[in-house]
C-alpha cells in the first residue's frame, strides 16, 4: 500500500490570501506552461534510460568522495558565487516557513546550484541569439511580485534582506525566465505544428469521456538507477516529511523535480487517471484532494504525486460557482489569551446572528467594530476546503459560522450573490491546439536545455 499523507492545514488569512512563497514561477510572470502528462519518458522520448554497456565487475581508479559538495561554479566563464547560492537558498527556506533541517539545507544547496547553472545557461543562450531582457521590464515584474506581498518595492527589498536574500537574486531569476521564454518563442514554437486531425481526435476523446473522473495532479519526479534507488527513495520520503511539516509542494517540485513540469511547481494540469502511467493512475484514483503519495516507482526513477483537485469531465461543478461575498473580521490584540479570544469570538458570533442579508452587514459591522471587505467573483474552488462545503450550501444573505485563530482574529463571510456555472462544454479547437502546442514546446525546451548542459564548460570551485 502506498504511503499517503495530507499536507498540514493552513490558517485562512482572508478570502484572497496573499502569495505565500518567495519562489517565483513562470505562472507568476505570465509565462507558464501547463503540461498534461506525467514524467514517464526520457529526453529523447524513449522509455527509461539507455544502456551504457558497463562492465559488471569494474575498478574505480582514483578517489571521488560523493560527500564533498562543491559550493560554487563557473559556467562558460560566468561565476556563480557562494552568495548567489545562499541568497537563492534563503528564498526556499523562507517559502517553507524557515523550518528546514541542516541536512535538508545541504541537499537544497546542491539543487540550488544546479538551478543556477541552468538559469545561467538559459541567459547565455538567449544572449547568443541576440535576445536581451530590458532591465526596466525586469523591474516591472519585480514590482508585481512585491505587490503580491502588498509591499512597495523598497519595503520588499528590506524584507528580502531580512530573510538573507536580495532583490538582485529575484531579478536574476526573472531575467532568466523571461529570456528562456523568448528563446522558446523564437527557436521552438515556430517549428511546432498541430494538425486539425489531432485537435478533432482530442475533442472526440473528451466527449466520449464526459462524466468520467478527472484529477489535477502535482508531481515531483526523481530519476534513479538500481544502484542509487534506495538513496533516492530516502530523499523522496524526506521531501514528503518536509511537506507534511508545512513545506510547499510547489516549492519542492520546483527545486527537486527533474520533470519539465518543475517550472510550474510540478503541476500536470487536469488529467484522467487513464492518461497517467499505470503506477500513478492507481494511486491518483484512490487518493483524496490534498493527499500526497509516494515514492512510486516509474520508468527511469520514482514520483511523488499530489492530488490538487478533482472533477468530472465536461460536467458542471458547483465549486465553479462565482460568489459575491462580504467579509466581517475582528482582530485580537497582541497577547490575547485563548480564554479571552473564545469569549470575544462568542460575542462576535452572537452579533452576526442579527445580519439579515448583505444590506445589514455594514451596519452590524460598524456596531461591533468589525472591518468589512467586499469580495466579488470569488470561485468556490479557490477557497479553503473547510469553507467550500459550507458556502455551497448557503443561500444568498446567509453567513458562515465564525472562523479564525488567536493570531488572525475571527471572521465570517456573508453570501451576497451567486452565479452558478454554465453547462460544461469541451474546450474549443483553438484552446486544444494551444494546449497541444504548449506540451510540445515544453518537451523540446527540455531537450534544448539538456543539449546546453552537454556543451557547457563548467568548473566547480
UniProtKB/TrEMBL annotation:
Protein's UniProt keywords contain Iron: no
Pfam families named in the record: Rotamase, SurA_N
UniProt-recorded Gene Ontology molecular function terms: peptidyl-prolyl cis-trans isomerase activity
Cleaved signal peptide residues: 1-38
Keywords annotated in UniProt: Chaperone, Isomerase, Periplasm, Rotamase, Signal
Gene3D superfamilies given in the database record: 3.10.50.40, Porin chaperone SurA, peptide-binding domain (1.10.4030.10)
Domain PpiC positions: 212-309
Annotated InterPro entries: OMP_Chaperone_SurA (IPR050280), PPIase_dom_sf (IPR046357), PPIase_PpiC (IPR000297), SurA_N (IPR015391), Trigger_fact/SurA_dom_sf (IPR027304)
Name of the molecule in the record: Parvulin-like PPIase
Annotated source species: Sphingobium cyanobacteriorum
Amino acid at each position: 500500500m502506498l504511503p499517503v499523507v495530507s499536507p498540514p492545514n493552513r490558517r485562512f488569512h482572508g478570502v484572497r490570501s496573499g502569495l505565500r512563497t518567495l519562489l517565483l514561477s513562470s505562472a507568476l510572470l505570465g509565462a507558464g506552461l501547463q503540461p498534461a502528462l506525467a514524467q514517464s519518458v526520457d529526453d529523447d522520448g524513449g522509455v527509461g534510460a539507455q544502456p551504457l554497456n558497463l562492465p559488471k565487475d569494474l575498478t574505480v581508479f582514483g578517489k571521488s568522495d560523493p560527500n564533498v559538495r562543491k559550493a560554487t561554479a563557473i559556467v562558460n566563464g560566468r561565476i556563480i558565487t557562494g552568495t548567489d547560492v545562499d541568497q537563492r537558498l534563503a528564498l526556499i527556506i523562507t517559502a517553507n516557513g524557515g523550518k528546514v533541517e541542516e541536512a535538508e539545507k545541504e541537499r537544497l544547496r546542491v539543487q540550488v546550484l544546479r538551478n543556477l547553472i541552468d538559469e545561467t545557461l538559459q541567459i547565455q543562450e538567449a544572449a547568443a541569439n541576440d535576445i536581451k531582457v530590458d532591465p526596466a521590464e525586469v523591474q516591472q515584474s519585480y514590482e508585481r511580485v512585491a505587490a503580491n506581498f502588498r509591499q512597495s518595492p523598497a519595503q520588499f527589498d528590506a524584507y528580502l534582506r531580512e530573510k538573507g536574500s536580495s532583490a538582485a537574486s529575484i531579478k536574476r531569476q526573472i531575467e532568466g525566465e523571461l529570456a528562456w521564454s523568448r528563446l522558446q518563442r523564437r527557436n521552438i514554437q515556430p517549428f511546432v505544428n498541430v494538425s486539425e486531425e489531432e485537435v478533432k481526435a482530442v475533442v472526440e476523446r473528451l466527449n466520449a469521456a464526459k462524466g468520467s473522473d478527472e484529477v489535477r495532479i502535482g508531481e515531483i519526479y526523481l530519476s534513479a538507477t538500481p544502484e542509487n534507488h534506495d538513496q533516492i527513495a530516502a530523499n523522496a520520503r524526506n521531501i514528503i516529511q518536509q511537506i507534511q511539516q508545512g513545506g510547499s509542494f510547489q516549492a519542492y517540485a520546483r527545486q527537486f523535480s527533474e520533470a519539465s513540469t518543475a517550472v510550474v511547481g510540478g503541476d500536470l494540469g487536469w488529467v484522467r487517471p487513464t492518461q497517467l502511467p499505470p503506477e500513478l493512475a492507481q494511486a491518483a484514483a484512490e487518493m483524496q484532494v490534498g493527499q500526497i503519495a509516494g515514492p512510486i516507482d516509474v520508468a527511469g526513477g520514482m514520483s511523488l504525486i499530489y492530488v490538487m483537485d478533482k472533477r468530472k469531465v465536461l460536467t458542471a461543478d458547483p465549486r465553479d460557482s462565482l460568489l459575491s461575498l462580504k467579509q466581517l473580521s475582528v482582530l485580537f490584540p497582541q497577547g490575547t489569551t485563548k480564554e479571552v479570544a473564545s469569549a470575544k469570538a462568542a460575542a462576535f458570533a452572537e452579533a452576526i446572528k442579527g445580519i439579515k442579508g448583505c444590506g445589514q452587514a455594514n451596519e452590524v459591522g460598524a456596531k461591533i467594530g468589525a472591518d468589512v471587505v467586499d469580495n466579488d467573483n470569488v470561485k468556490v474552488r479557490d477557497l479553503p476546503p473547510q469553507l467550500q462545503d459550507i458556502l455551497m450550501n448557503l443561500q444568498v444573505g446567509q453567513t458562515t459560522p465564525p472562523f479564525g485563530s488567536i493570531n488572525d482574529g475571527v471572521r465570517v463571510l456573508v453570501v451576497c450573490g451567486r452565479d452558478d456555472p454554465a453547462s460544461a462544454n469541451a474546450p474549443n479547437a483553438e484552446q486544444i491546439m494551444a494546449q497541444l502546442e504548449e506540451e510540445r514546446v515544453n518537451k523540446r525546451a527540455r531537450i534544448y536545455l539538456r543539449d546546453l548542459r552537454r556543451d557547457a564548460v563548467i568548473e566547480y570551485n
